[in-house]
Amino acid sequence: MQIQAQIDIATHNIILSQNSLRYLLNQNPGEIKSADNFAKLDFNRFKPGSLPATVLQNQPDLKMAEYAVKSAHAGVAVAYAGLFPSLQLDSFIGAGSSNGTIGNPINYSPMQDVYMNWGINPSTFGQIEAQKGAYQAQVYRYIQTVRKILKDVDNDFSANRQYSSNYKNTQQAWNDLAKQYKLQQGLYQTGIMSYTQLLASKIQLDNLAIAVNQAKLQQAMTVVNLYQDLAGGYKYQNPESTISTRD
C-alpha cells in the first residue's frame, strides 16, 4: 500500500508535466505521445559553443531597457525645445495707391510681417534637468540589465557543465554497479553469496538508477534555463556568411 501511494503521486506528477509541456507548445491538456521515453533522450547532444553576444539582444528585458533609454533621450530633446524662440506670422490686407499718392488709395495689397517672441520660462530649465535625470536613470537601468543578463547566462553555462558532468559520473557509477551485480548473480547461483546479500545489492542498484534519472532531469533543466536566458529561439547572422544559423 505504501508503494501504491507513491505510484499515485508519481502518476499525478506525470500528468502535471504533460500539461506543462503541452502548455509551452500552445496546446490543450492531454497525453504526450512519443516513441522515445525519458531514458532514451540524450541531452549531451546540446553543447553550447562559442556564441556572439548579439544573440542576447533578443532578450525582452534588454529590448524594454533599450526603448526606455531612447524614450528618455527624446524627452531631453523635447525639453530643450522650450529654449527656442517662437515665431508669429501676421498677414493682413491694406489699401494702397498705384500712382504713389496717399490721398487716393484705389488698390488693395496684402501685407505680411513676422514677429519673434522669445520669452523663456524659468521652469524650462527645471524640465531640462528633470529629463536629464530621467535619461541618466534609464541608462543606469540599461547597464544593470545587461550585467544581469550576462550573469544569468554565465550561471546557466556553469550549471549546464556541472550537472552534465554530474549525470555522466552518476551514470558511470550505475554501469559499474550493474556489472558488479551481474557478477554477484553468478556467485549466488553457485552458492557463494546469500540471497539477502544479492537483494541488498539489487536495492542499491535500483536506488542508483533513481539517482541517474534525477541527475538527467537536472541536466535537462539546465538546458531549458540556458535556452530561455539566451532569448530562446535566438537567431543571428554570421558576418562572414549569408547563412542564418539557429541553435
Topology:
Elements: H1 2-24, H2 60-80, E1 86-96, E2 107-117, H3 123-189, H4 195-229, E3 235-237, E4 244-246
Antiparallel strand pairs: 1-2, 3-4
CATH class of the domain at 53-84 and 123-232: Mainly Alpha
Q: What integer is the average pLDDT?
A: 78
Radius of gyration: 37 Å
Q: What percentage of amino acids are in beta strands?
A: 5-15%
SSE string, helix = H, strand = E?
HHEEHHEE
Main sheet makeup: 2 strands, antiparallel
Low-pLDDT ranges = 236-247
What is the tally of beta strands? Answer: 4
**CATH third-level topology of the domain at 53-84 and 123-232:** Outer membrane efflux proteins (OEP)
The SS-based structural class is mainly alpha
CATH architecture descriptor name of the domain at 53-84 and 123-232: Up-down Bundle
CATH superfamily of the domain at 53-84 and 123-232: Outer membrane efflux proteins (OEP)
The helix fraction, in percent, is 55-70%
